[in-house]
Amino acid sequence: MGDFADHEKIVKSDVENFFDKNADMHKNIHAVLDAKPTPAVMHSNLYRDYFTRRYMNKYVAPQPGDSILDFGCGVGRVTFDFANRVKKISGIDTSKNMLSVAESLKGNRTNVSFELLSESRLPYSDNSFNKIFSNWVIQHISDQNLIIYLREFHRILSSGGRIYLFEQTMSQLTSNEIHTFRKTEDYEKIISSAGFKKILVKPVMRVPARGMSIWNKKLFPKIIFPALALIDEMTMTRKPEFVKYYTSAFVYEKM
After folding, report:
1. Angle (CA) 221 222 228, round 5°
2. Within 10 Å of residue 245's Cβ, how many Cβ atoms?
3. Closest CA to 122 of 101, 151, 98
4. SS3 per-residue string spanning 27-51
5. What is the pLDDT of residues 101-132, one digit of tens each?
6. DSSP per residue over 148-195, as a string?
7. pLDDT band at residue 2, thresholds of 50, 70 and 90?
8. What gap in Å lies between CA 131 and CA 77, rounded to an integer?
């Protein structure tokens, strides 16, 4: 793999079992946000869902002519959000149970398809998509497998196509059996090595965040989401010493 060391402890089967169990517990958005079955977590998930959709819509910016791949689609939380605005969208995931939930929610959408990710080569032909996105997915993939998938992204993207990877980043690399939380520069190095040109790298969400903290303290109506999101966007880079982690957007273009 060259300069990239397979230093993570990630066990692929543990990742799949973790998300299969989450899908069995919650056959909805909670399965892919935080599956702890407590009222406080369920309440927090409502804002996290809104805020993540907000920044993903802003940067991916789905258009009527787009053919998009949702890599690590889970239960189709964002797949279905984009479906009404694009030509076609495909979701792929390693969790059979997550995909089962997604299929049950698909309804009569003819421009949506789902595939099980069971091997390194993605089941799509060259130049199939003009956009690929993922959210909080590649932290569950080892360096060795990540570079393989990035090269597959390059293969299946059309000329000038872009990837939009939204991922949690920390000041120091930490790893366990189902997560590797990398530094921003780690992602930049790996993505660039797969033949992509950097367009944008910036933090789009932080934990803890002021707006989310306000939401979590009281049962406010959802109508205040835009105001809270604006607060979080305005305070994104303030007092970085108190940040546990960021979610950063990595936007790269096929060269």
Report:
1. 105
2. 17
3. 151
4. CCHHHHCCCCCCHHHHHHHHHHHHH
5. 999 999 999 999 999 999 889 999 999 999 99
6. HHHHHHHHHEEEEEEEEEEEEE-SS-EE-SS-EEB-HHHHHHHHHHTT
7. very low
8. 17
Report whether 204 contacts 166 (CB < 8 A): yes
Residue 45 has a CB neighbour count (10 Å cut-off) of 19
- Give the pLDDT mean for 7-25: 90
One-letter identity of residue 144: Q
139 DSSP 8-state letter: G
For 128: left if phi > 0, alpha if psi spans -120 to 50, otherwise beta; the answer is alpha
**Token pair for residue 80?**
């279905």
Backbone phi, then psi, for 203, in 5-degree steps?
Answer: -70, 135
Buried residues in 169-208 as b, exposed as e (16+ CB within 10 A): bbeeeeeeebbbbbebebbbebbeebebeeeebebbbbee
Distance in angstroms (rounded) separating the CA atoms of residues 225 and 90: 29
Torsion of CA 240, 241, 245, 251, to 10 degrees: 30
Take residue 33 and report the two structure tokens written for it: 């946000």
63 contacts: CB under 8 Å, gap ≥ 6: 85, 86
Answer whether 0.70 is exceeded by the pTM: yes
**Distance between CA atoms of residues 35 and 74, nearest Å:** 13
E strand or H helix that includes residue 58: helix 39-60
- The secondary element (H helix, E strand) that includes residue 55 is helix 39-60
